[in-house]
Structure formats: structure tokens, C-alpha cells
């Protein structure tokens, strides 16, 4: 088969490249505009089986490229996903979410191509229910600073389900909750990347707001396993399904845990809360469990250990 991974140089995309190489003999094409990702993430795999094309998914020439390469399956990860990046690039984020998915949908319309689409827990916004299940419609500020991402991803879902109803296309939508692990950029500004990098550099560990807000963290191998299983379900299944690890932690707990584990001299400092920051985030994964026969395997303790090892190697390589 010929597989296309859009955003394949990013954190999840590059981990998907590795997974497909491990599981199959398929030929992989990576399309990425390298705006928030790094080609280094796939450099070691480039060759006959992994090919790289620098291109923006918003460019509608991508439809011709997909047709010419006769792609069988598309995994779409192309979008800035870290708040630090999307707050800095709101318009590009909205475009990648909405125009990007429109191009991919047009490329599969009238074909047997399968498309996996990475949606996000951000579609639930600052949720008024916890845990969040797929039936919850969310609580999103439509004009806030996060809305480029939240509403962009909601609009993408809306468009996908219209294409499904109108053209019966095969799209598998997953709402991905916080994922961490090797392949993350040390500079993406996310909580795990920031806290580990700050700790390793003996710099203050920065909590935004009270630190009482929560997230639930899924190790990247578990997220990727679930996505792979979902794409390979014999029976068409549109979802959307939540993929994540329901182990919920407060931001303060994460700061203290990482600080102690690193035995760092870093202090913990409290800074201004981020605008519209979701206060409780925890997935209900019953649907994914039932459909995929999957549950997360890697504990938070083991996952953080592996991530620290990866970040140490990245930071040392820079010195
Ligand atoms: N956060 C923090 N300090 C940091 C980075 C993030 O306190 O240095 C908080 C952030 O305000 C949010 C949570 O950690 O409440 C998760 O943020 P992240 O950027 O990882 O992603 P999000 O889940 O918001 O998309």
C-alpha cells in the first residue's frame, strides 16, 4: 500500500512513520510544510520506503499529488497543536484545520481511500462535564485566543461529517487528548516539555494559573497504537472516538513529580493563567476500548522516565 502522512515531521506524525515501518512493508509519503515541525524527526528513515515532500496541505495541488501517487490511506496530523504555536500563528492554524481538511476530503471523494483525522479534546473547550465523552458538545469561546484551534478543529469535524453524509467517504475521526513522549520538541511550550526542560536546565518550573487545573496524559506509543488499530479496523467506523489516558493529574502534581524525579535546583513559580484554559480534562475512553480492544499500556511513571531520557539526549546533543 501507499500511505500518506500529512504533518509527518511533527511529534505524532513522525511516531506514526515509525509505527508503519515497524508493522508493514508499505511505502510512506510524508507531506509537511515544516512550520512547526522538524525534518530531523524522520531523517533517519528517509529512503526508498519513506519519501518527503515539502508542501502545505492548504495548497490544493495536494489533491493532484495524492491522485498521482495513488495513495491508499491518509493519516492527517498537519496542524500546529501546541498552544504556544497556535497562539502565535492563529490564522495558519485555522487554515490548516479547515482548508487543509477540505483538500484531503476532496482527494478521497469518489475513491476507496481511507482518511484518519486527528481531532482534539479541545473541541470540548473548557468542559462543564468531566470526564468528557463523545456525546458532550463542549463549551468553547468562539472568539477567544484559542478559538483558532478549538473552532478550527470543530469546523473540520463539521465538514468531515457533511462529506460522510453526502459522499459516504471513509474518514476515521479521533479526538486526541494530551499526548507526550519521545519525538516532542523541547521547545513546544507544552507542560511536559517545559517542565522537563526547565528542570534539566535548573530553571524555574512555570505553573500558569493556580496549578489546580487538570490534564490526563497518554504516552505516545499508546496513542499511536490506538490510531493504527482504528485505521485498520476492517469495518468502516467514523467515530469520533476519544483517545487518551484517563489518569488525571493536576498541573501542580506534574510540576512536583518532575521536580523530585530530576532532583533539580529549579524552584516552582506561579504565573498568569492562560486565557480560556480548560480547567478539567479527562477522557472517557469506553468507546475506544470497545471498538479497538485497546487500553493504554504505559504508566505515567514509565512514560515520564522515557521522555526525560529523550529530552536529556536532545539537550546534550545541542551542547
Ligand atoms: N502549563 C503550565 N506551565 C507550562 C506549560 C503549560 O502551567 O509551562 C499548563 C497550561 O496552562 C495548561 C496545562 O499546563 O493548563 C496544559 O498545557 P499544554 O500547553 O501542555 O497543553 P493543553 O492541554 O492546554 O493543550
Question: What does this protein structure show overall?
Answer:
This protein has 319 residues and is of the alpha/beta class. It has a single domain, classed as NAD(P)-binding Rossmann-like Domain (Rossmann fold, 3-Layer(aba) Sandwich). Helices cover 41% and strands 17% of the residues. The protein contains eleven helices and 13 strands. It has helices at residues 11-23, 40-43, 61-69, 83-88, 90-108, 147-167, 191-200, 220-231, 251-262, 286-292, 300-318; strands at 2-6, 27-32, 50-54, 73-76, 114-120, 170-176, 179-180, 205-208, 214-216, 218-219, 241-243, 248-250, 268-271. It has a seven-stranded parallel sheet with strand order 3-2-1-4-5-6-11, sandwiched between helices. Strand 1, helix 1 (11-23) and strand 2 (27-32) form a beta-alpha-beta unit. Helix 5 (90-108) packs parallel to helix 6. It is globular and about 55 Å long. The N and C termini lie far apart (41 Å). 44% of the residues are buried. The site of uridine-5'-diphosphate (UDP) has 15 residues, from helix 7 and strand 8.
List the helices and strands and how they pair.
Blueprint: E1 2-6, H1 11-23, E2 27-32, H2 40-43, E3 50-54, H3 61-69, E4 73-76, H4 83-88, H5 90-108, E5 114-120, H6 147-167, E6 170-176, E7 179-180, H7 191-200, E8 205-208, E9 214-216, E10 218-219, H8 220-231, E11 241-243, E12 248-250, H9 251-262, E13 268-271, H10 286-292, H11 300-318
Parallel strand pairs: 1-2, 1-4, 2-3, 4-5, 5-6, 6-11, 7-10, 8-13
Antiparallel strand pairs: 9-12
Amino acid at each position: 500500500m501507499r500511505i500518506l502522512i500529512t504533518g509527518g515531521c511533527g511529534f505524532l506524525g513522525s511516531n506514526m512513520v515509525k509505527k508503519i515501518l515497524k508493522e508493514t512493508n508499505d511505502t510512506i509519503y510524508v507531506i509537511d510544510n515544516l512550520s512547526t515541525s522538524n525534518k530531523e524527526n524522520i531523517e533517519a528513515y528517509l529512503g526508498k520506503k519513506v519519501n518527503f515532500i515539502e508542501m502545505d496541505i492548504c495548497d490544493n495541488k495536494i489533491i493532484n499529488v495524492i491522485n498521482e501517487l495513488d495513495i491508499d490511506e491518509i493519516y492527517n496530523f498537519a496542524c500546529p497543536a501546541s498552544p504556544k504555536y497556535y497562539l502565535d500563528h492563529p490564522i495558519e492554524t485555522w487554515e490548516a484545520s479547515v482548508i487543509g481538511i477540505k483538500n484531503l476530503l476532496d482527494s478521497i471523494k469518489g475513491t476507496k481511500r481511507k482518511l484518519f483525522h486527528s481531532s482534539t479534546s479541545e473541541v470540548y473547550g473548557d468542559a462543564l462535564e468531566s470526564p468528557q465523552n463523545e456525546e458532550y458538545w463542549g463549551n468553547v469561546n468562539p472568539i477567544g485566543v484559542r478559538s483558532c484551534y478549538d473552532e478550527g478543529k470543530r469546523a473540520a469535524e463539521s465538514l468531515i461529517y457533511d462529506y460522510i453524509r453526502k459522499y459516504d467517504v471513509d474518514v476515521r475521526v479521533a479526538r486526541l487528548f494530551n499526548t507526550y513522549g519521545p519525538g516532542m520538541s523541547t521547545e513546544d511550550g507544552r507542560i511536559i516539555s517545559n517542565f522537563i526542560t526547565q528542570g534539566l536546565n535548573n530553571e524555574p518550573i512555570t505553573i500558569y494559573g493556580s496549578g489546580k487545573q487538570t490534564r490526563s496524559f497518554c504516552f505516545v506509543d499508546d496513542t499511536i497504537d490506538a490510531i493504527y488499530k482504528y485505521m485498520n479496523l476492517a469495518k468502516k467506523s467514523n467515530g469520533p472516538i476519544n483517545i487518551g489516558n484517563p489518569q488525571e493529574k493536576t498541573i501542580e502534581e506534574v510540576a512536583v513529580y518532575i521536580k523530585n524525579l530530576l532532583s533539580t535546583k529549579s524552584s516552582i513559580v506561579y504565573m498568569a493563567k492562560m486565557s480560556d484554559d480548560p480547567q478539567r480534562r479527562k477522557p472517557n475512553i469506553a468507546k475506544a476500548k470497545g471498538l479497538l480492544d485497546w487500553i493504554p499500556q504505559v504508566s505515567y511513571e514509565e512514560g515520564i522516565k522515557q521522555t526525560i531520557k529523550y529530552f536529556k539526549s536532545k539537550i546534550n546533543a545541542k551542547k
